Amino acid sequence: MTSIPTPAVFVLEDGTRYTGRAYGALGRSLGEAVFATGMTGYQETLTDPSYAGQIVLMTAPHIGNTGMNDEDLESSRIWVAGFIVRDPSRVVSNFRSQRTLDDDLVEQNVVGISGVDTRAITRRLRDSGAMRSGIFSGTDLELSDDEQLEIVRAGRDMRGLNLSGEVSTQEAYVVEAIGEKIGNLAVLDLGVKTSTLTYLSQRGFDVHVLPQSVSLEEVLAINPVGAFYSNGPGDPGASDQHVELLQGILREGLPFFGICFGNQLLGRALGFGTYKLPFGHRGINQPVVDVGTGRTEITSHNHGFAVDAPIGEPTESPAGFGLVEVSHVNLNDNVVEGLNALDIPAFSVQYHPEAAAGPHDSNYLFDRFRDLVLAKQATSTEGNN
């Protein structure tokens, strides 16, 4: 006997409604509606802290085919506020699978919806931009249309929202270096992914993962050879304390590397502004050109904000850190995708070079950072002789 599907509804703040079937836990989820365009990697997407506060729609139609496992988790839990898929897999088929996606959604109380026209929703978000939204099932489905819409419109707006405290570690910890050790690396956890820490430790760093609330004195206390700002959710314009901390790090002359949210904060620390994109870049198939080499990389993205810096010739840092160039540009919409400081040892990219679950075109950036740290150490040694 076939069970009767449990109904659910997805509501956008403009009043648009999409009916479907409950997927995962029953109840209510609220968040900014965004879409991710990767054909694979749903487990990495779900456990990426950068998606905190967002209801994520997968544009790939079949989700859950390979189940879930403990090896590919990017953090200790699922972070998305809600999950939207067209066709959840009825059968899990992968030798690495330990459980179904639905099992994890239910266990972690993630409310989702399936059986909706994800292409139509994606086009709506592309035309109107990311917006507040909600998924309602179970007893919350009994609310009237007007009540559901009122709840959605009362939800949090990502503009001006600081989420770092919700996703950062509460206690510092160390991931030890693999191979020959270079020194201690200070990593500010703004929503860092496990694969990022792995790649940094493989480059010889003793990776000290620090809470987002640390002071400059606490950073310097570990005697770091460099500093790193991770990816993370929220509006970079609401992270003044992280900008001030980074400016202190730069004045100390520490080599710096930032990714995603870290790129936006480097932009602010250098004196540039940031702004919200209409619907952002999310997925593992974004084309980015390296301005210096002319080489195009296919890159992994998850960001709704971008740096407002001039593309073309190097420009003087408004905050007094010397010349800065835009190093990478998105080929789809000309958005700034990387910054390179020419007078201090600092650079950043807007995308995810750790790229779990791929592609790995940009993995070399971890080597570039390692080389930057080694060059700084060599200069310091020469200066002491």
Automatic annotation (TrEMBL):
HAMAP family membership: CPSase_S_chain
Subunit organization: Composed of two chains; the small (or glutamine) chain promotes the hydrolysis of glutamine to ammonia, which is used by the large (or ammonia) chain to synthesize carbamoyl phosphate. Tetramer of heterodimers (alpha,beta)4.
Entries under SMART domains matching the protein: CPSase_sm_chain (SM01097)
Record EC number: 6.3.5.5
NCBIfam families, per the entry: CPSaseIIsmall, PRK12838.1
Name the UniProt record assigns to this protein: Carbamoyl phosphate synthase small chain
Keywords of the record: Amino-acid biosynthesis, Arginine biosynthesis, ATP-binding, Glutamine amidotransferase, Ligase, Nucleotide-binding, Pyrimidine biosynthesis
Keyword Amino-acid biosynthesis found: yes
Sites where the protein binds L-glutamine: S50, G232, G234, F261, Q264, N302, G304, F305
GO terms under biological process: 'de novo' pyrimidine nucleobase biosynthetic process; 'de novo' UMP biosynthetic process; glutamine metabolic process; L-arginine biosynthetic process
Record CDD domains: GATase1_CPSase
Residue span, Carbamoyl-phosphate synthase small subunit N-terminal domain: 6-136
Pathway the protein acts in: Amino-acid biosynthesis; L-arginine biosynthesis; carbamoyl phosphate from bicarbonate: step 1/1; Pyrimidine metabolism; UMP biosynthesis via de novo pathway; (S)-dihydroorotate from bicarbonate: step 1/3
Family classification: Belongs to the CarA family.
Signal peptide start and end residues: none
Source organism: Conyzicola lurida
GO MF entry, a single one: ATP binding
Region CPSase, annotated ranges: 1-180
Function: Small subunit of the glutamine-dependent carbamoyl phosphate synthetase (CPSase). CPSase catalyzes the formation of carbamoyl phosphate from the ammonia moiety of glutamine, carbonate, and phosphate donated by ATP, constituting the first step of 2 biosynthetic pathways, one leading to arginine and/or urea and the other to pyrimidine nucleotides. The small subunit (glutamine amidotransferase) binds and cleaves glutamine to supply the large subunit with the substrate ammonia.
Reaction(s) catalysed by this chain's protein: L-glutamine + H2O = L-glutamate + NH4(+); hydrogencarbonate + L-glutamine + 2 ATP + H2O = carbamoyl phosphate + L-glutamate + 2 ADP + phosphate + 2 H(+)
PROSITE patterns (alphabetical): GATASE_TYPE_1
Active site: C260 (nucleophile), H352, E354
